[in-house]
Design a protein that fits this description.
Helix content: over 70%
Strand order of the largest sheet: 1-2
Radius of gyration: 42 Å
Oligomer: single chain
Distance between the termini: 143 Å
CATH topology of the largest domain: Arp2/3 complex 21 kDa subunit ARPC3
Strand content: under 5%
Shape: rod-shaped
Order of helices and strands: HHHEEHHHHHEEHHH
CATH class of the largest domain: Mainly Alpha
């Protein structure tokens, strides 16, 4: 018995460490390997659970599937949500649910294929129970959503909760919620229901206490790194983010359309101003003019009548007439008349 317990403990420690170590490498290699590991652990958990592998320790039954692999999945989703946000968490949840649905289908298919070729595989691939697997998938979805909600609720500033206590209560709450949902969905109405519920609640408490140091140390280690912090999100961020993203995308599209219209209007205005600028001709600078005849010297050295020069350098046109002084000087007879 002691030998079996040690194997279970070391197995759990190894898988917990593997999950957290894989997550710590996400900034170097990306999150793909984390999701791949989550999918693999989900498949193993499904097979081990269907096989009914469990050990007795001090009168408490520890199912290997939940003790080792389900808890490791919770740790993976936990740290993904805390450090990578709801979008990464939803990908992880989709991976777990998708593999959980596929595993019993694969098992049934293999049994059917083995029956056709006459080679039994019952000892290698346990035939799943539809009720148990349905309850497991439904409970898993609710567990992982509850994890995000509980974490944010317990992180409210007015609660002023320590990080280790916040992590433990979140983990334990998810564990116990899973027990209630799974046991009720899979065994309600059977004679074993109450005993399974009571025994599993105790075992999940022990598992939570055992897994807490791994989770707490990792949260503390990651949050102390430069550029990484534990963000406080709305309580329903795991559910509301999809709607918020849609709203943000709609707003972004409207903003892009508005900016395009403003840019087009600006371009039209610039074109109009450029056209007006091209049509404007101004006289500026020092203009050489004859003191006697009033001719102006242009840039090429030619002397031109003042009228010709101004018409070349502006949009003004001259209409000739004669002033009263010149009339008196040049045509005194007309002036007398």
């Amino acid at each position: 018995m002691a030998h079996e317990t040690l194997i279970l403990v070391f197995e759990a420690m190894a898988v917990y460490f593997l999950v957290l170590w894989a997550h710590s490498l996400r900034h170097r290699f990306g999150p793909t390997h984390v999701y791949a590991l989550i999918g693999a652990l989900t498949a193993i958990m499904s097979w081990v659970t269907d096989a009914g592998v469990a050990i007795q320790v001090g009168g408490i039954t520890f199912v290997v599937g939940s003790t080792v692999f389900y808890t490791s999945l919770l740790l993976a989703v936990f740290v993904l949500y805390v450090f990578d946000g709801p979008q990464a968490t939803r990908i992880a949840i989709s991976t777990i649910v998708g593999v959980s649905i596929m595993m019993p289908i694969i098992a049934v298919t293999l049994h059917y294929q083995a029956r056709i070729i006459g080679q039994p595989v019952a000892n290698y691939v346990p035939l799943p129970s539809l009720r148990i697997n349905t309850a497991s998938v439904a409970a898993t979805i609710m567990d992982l959503i509850f994890l995000a909600i509980a974490w944010e609720f317990l992180g409210k500033p007015n609660l002023n909760m320590k990080l280790w206590l916040r992590a433990f209560l979140t983990l334990l709450g998810v564990m116990w919620l899973d027990v209630i949902l799974f046991a009720t969905g899979a065994f309600a109405g059977t004679p074993e229901y109450v005993n399974i519920l009571q025994g599993t609640l105790i075992s999940r408490f022990v598992i939570s206490v055992f897994a807490l140091p791994f989770l707490y140390c990792y949260l503390r280690l990651q949050s102390n790194k430069k550029g990484i912090e534990i963000e406080q999100r709305p309580v329903l961020a795991i559910l509301k983010e999809v709607a918020e993203i849609k709203i943000e995308l709609t707003s972004a599209k409207q903003e892009i359309a508005r900016r395009k219209a403003a840019e087009k209007e600006k371009e039209l205005l610039i074109a109009e101003l450029q056209t007006a600028l091209n049509e404007v001709k101004t006289l500026r600078g020092l203009i050489p003019i004859c003191a006697n005849c009033k001719k102006i010297r242009d840039d090429k050295g030619y002397w031109k009548q003042i009228e010709a020069y101004i018409e070349e350098h502006s949009d003004a046109f001259f209409s000739h007439g004669i002033c009263p002084d010149c009339v008196n000087k040049l045509y005194p007879d007309l002036m007398d008349e």
